[in-house]
Amino acid sequence: MKTGTKLGIAALALAVGTVMLWFHLARQVNLPDDRTLFVIVFLCAAALGVTAYVKGTSILGAIPPAFAMVIGLFLPFTIAISPQELEAGKVIQVGDTIPHFTALDDQGATFDSASLNGHLVLIKFFRAHW
Amino acid sequence: MITVSTDLPEVIAEDRHLHGIQARMLSDQQLIVTDAFGLRNTAYHSAPPGDDTKALPVPATLLVDTRGKVLWMDVSEDYQRRSDPSVVLAAMQQHFDTL
Fold it and tell me: pTM for the whole thing?
């Protein structure tokens, strides 16, 4: 097996192993505040993938480093874009009354927030199913 | 309990059973409800191909009393970091159980 092929497989194993740990922690709502170590490991996996090509791989052996580079670069990208920002002065505050609103629910029925009067309510805003 | 996301109603309906959610789940693709609460994320927006949303809500949880007053809220500064569910449960015990 060519050196590059072995490196490529190692790169992919590192990337996949780290991503599996990542999603395991994410599912438990337990990703660390400081994800620097994750970024370093992912970038190492990507770098290992590049090194695999430099050393030379077989044709099939060219596939693992490609995946390693994609994973190794994509996750740090998501970390870089993860900070959220609100428009100051517009966000609702504790003590405010919630606005009246209507929306469609998942059955296509119209929901009117007036129906919440008299109830204790938990409202959860999330991004999307993905 | 109600949830708000930019998913279209049919997408929410498809995935709802996966998590056994009992809440009324609302579709807010145009961010009308999100903007009414001032919860639009104004930082970098990214979505998978095929998703048409121009922006997303900042992940947030609000506890509201019977007259519509916000008692407590938790807003994510980072979409990869959310409060542990125990934080929400503790807030519910603190704010709801005393009413």
Answer: 0.84
